[in-house]
């Protein structure tokens, strides 16, 4: 798709456009115009139907429920079999990293009880569809909408064995005795270091895969690839203390994103998932 045709359709006066790297689902661009700078994402409607619509819904939910800086949505639309999302451009302020502010904002977001576990629609995590059927209990949602669908997918594709599948089923039967009973929280859903930044106005996050879930899922995801300052966790815990033994549950909270990576990339993620399933069966 011609980026210029999108810019023209929006009535913006383009000065320059710069391709950006980092995503494997969408092409991304920085657009400089007389009206300001924007972030543009483009991908295939056929491959990822409604992806940007669901992303907008996640962004708007985060914007309405937190003090985090969330990029403002300017436009999402279809052109010639492709879809695009235009967001405000966020400027980075790497010299002033407000980790305490990020911890406070995330804790306050999580501390607002939500109506159920799930979401109003299915959406995506990366390029994978994410099932969000609503449930009253976390353990049933996590088993039926997160763990088992991906384990069965890997089994059907010949990656996992019948023993792996059985270990996952056994684990899911024990979840109610593992996770503390807490109200559903609005989650970012894909909270790794690449999806947060610090701006002159405060901590920001983007590229969400939101749903109502157990708050330890965001914490586990933040620890999976590292990069978060210790003061982030300390401040979070001061504002909304995590329940006893939360560190022992980290492998379980990371199981879902590890399954996502196993489905997308295979590699060492396969054995890492197997190890968790064996340890927790």
Characterization of the model:
The chain has helices spanning about 5-10, 50-65, 100-110, 140-155, 160-175, 215-225, 230-240, 250-265, 270-280, and strands spanning about 15-20, 25-35, 35-45, 75-80, 80-90, 125, 130, 185, 195-200, 200-205, 210-215. It is α+β, with helices and mostly antiparallel strands and about 280 residues long. It has 2 domains: about 5-90, Phosphorylase Kinase, domain 1 (2-Layer Sandwich); about 100-280, Alpha-Beta Complex (Aminoglycoside 3'-phosphotransferase, Chain: A, domain 2). Strands 1-2-3-5-4 form a 5-stranded antiparallel beta sheet, sandwiched between helices. The chain has a two-stranded antiparallel sheet with strand order 6-7. Helix 3 (about 100-110) packs parallel to helix 7 (about 230-240) and helix 4 runs parallel beside helix 8. The N and C termini lie far apart (about 50 Å). The relative contact order is 0.14.
């Amino acid at each position: 798709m011609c980026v210029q045709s999108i810019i023209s359709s929006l009535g913006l006066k383009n000065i320059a456009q710069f391709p950006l790297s980092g995503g494997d689902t969408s092409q991304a661009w920085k657009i400089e115009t007389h009206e300001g700078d924007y972030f543009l994402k483009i991908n295939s409607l056929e491959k990822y139907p409604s992806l940007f619509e669901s992303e907008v819904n996640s962004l708007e939910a985060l914007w309405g429920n937190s003090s985090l800086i969330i990029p403002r949505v300017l436009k999402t639309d279809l052109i010639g079999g492709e879809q695009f999302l235009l967001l405000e451009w966020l400027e980075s302020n790497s010299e002033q990293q407000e980790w305490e502010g990020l911890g406070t904002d995330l804790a306050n977001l999580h501390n607002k009880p939500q109506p159920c576990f799930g979401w109003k629609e299915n959406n995506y995590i990366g390029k994978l569809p994410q099932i969000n059927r609503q449930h009253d209990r976390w353990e049933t949602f996590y088993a039926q909408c997160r763990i088992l669908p991906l384990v069965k997918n890997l089994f059907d594709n010949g990656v996992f064995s019948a023993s792996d599948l059985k270990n996952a089923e056994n684990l899911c039967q024990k979840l109610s005795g593992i996770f503390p009973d807490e109200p559903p929280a609005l989650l970012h859903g894909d909270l790794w270091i690449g999806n947060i930044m610090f701006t002159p106005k405060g901590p920001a996050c983007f590229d969400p895969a939101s749903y109502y879930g157990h708050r330890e899922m965001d914490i586990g995801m933040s620890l999976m690839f590292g990069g978060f300052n210790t003061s982030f966790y300390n401040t979070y815990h001061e504002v909304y203390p995590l329940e006893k033994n939360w560190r022992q549950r980290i492998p379980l909270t990371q199981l879902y994103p590890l399954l996502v990576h196993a489905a997308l990339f295979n590699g060492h993620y396969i054995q890492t998932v197997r190890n968790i399933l064996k340890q927790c069966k």
